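Q: Got a minute? One more chain.
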Amino acid sequence: MNQIPNFLLERVRLTPNRIAVVSDQEEITFKELHERVIQLAGRFHSCGIEKGKHVSVLMNNSIEFIVTVYAIHYIGAIAILLNTRLSEDEISYQIQNSDSNFLIVENENFIAPPSTVRVLEMNNIQQFEVKPVVIREYFNHDEIATMMYTSGTTGFPKAVLQSYGNHWSSAIASVLNLGLDQSDVWLVCLPMFHVGGLSTVYKSAIYGMKIVLAEKAEAGIVLNYINQYKITILSVVTKVLNDLLNFEDINKGLSSIRAALLGGGPAPLPLLQKAQERNVPVYQTYGMTETCSQIATLSPEFMLSKIGSAGKALFGCSLEIRENDKKSSPGVVGEIVVKGPNVSKGYYKLQTNDTSEFFYTGDLGYVDEDGFLFVVDRRSDLIISGGENIYPAEIESILLSHPDLIEAGVTGREDPTWGKVPIAFVIAKSKNHPSEQEMIEFCQKKLAKFKIPKEIHFVSSLPRNAANKLVRRELHKLL
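A: Always. Here it is, folded:
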């Protein structure tokens, strides 16, 4: 397919009166959403936003955020979605690096941008006239819709180029795996400036599905939304799901869930076993900004037989494990490489990929004899100790199997003898937690000697990014 229909415009043609988005303040239909987008696109146009312009968006989750992104699409400009939790210096770098012509903010207190960038405040946008604008009804498959910056685990963050075809293909591949029901309601508790949140916005229009915007990704709040709106699908990271499963009243509270998509890294086995006991269908997923959300997900019929696996590549996608550019045998850990219509062609201002070739993810994993993917860790988080590869996620999973711990993070510390050795940071359920020595003895029963953390530090919180993913490179700052 060379052209992609305008997602929202097509949905309005088909089912205009279905509920599109629900927030704490209101709910609106697809037709009402479209009418707001038309108005805002007209105001943006009168401010000088035109096809091809680069428009940075610095907003938190809200219906206004969705209207803003669609208004940029209607005009044919490119939306650069900025993480509101970054420092002012980090945001300024991304605005400049992306060659943004405009910056859209909720209010003027957000940031002072470079002088070359025009700031538009959503609080004051009504003052501008609605100038007629030609709505883009179709987009070319390779036309860039959005840019998102990677979290910058190594060096400066890079702007991932995400085309309309990438977003479309991601939504189609997902629904071919998960299926679709008329009663489906998807809870958006991930930030929409990340691909996990934004992809659900596009799925809403493509599927004709209601989405509910959560105020925060906190277990108590999420549980209230699930009960109030009969949520059937939600995307969460490990911490949120673990907190949800620890609620006493959980069996009744999560009965409407038919799919809890779990991303953000390898899932600890104790968490998956707990979900199984509570009849919560967890679908482990694997994806990244460069794949416009998930590229592999465990199919429902394998949820119990392949526990811990991220499944197989979605329909129309492919993946394999490589080491030194050679395909690895089943069971052998190597770098995960992926290919598919949802994979980005590369990064802004950097050499782009040939999308017919495999994209090297920088993640480590293996496939079993049946071709199921098991994600091991980020290559950048790998600890090499005395020539042995140590995967932090494996140690974290063991630590989390202890009944007195609720969170764990592992990283490497420089060591004159071994090069690096693992150290752990954990959060206990109560002040009456086991001692460091008791925890080390617990690990000795379950881990090879070289994998046992040399130090275990009890802390009150672990460093996490805006998507609630553990940031292991920040763990040293807790010392």
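A: Residues 30-46 form the longest helix (17 residues).
Q: Perfect, thanks.
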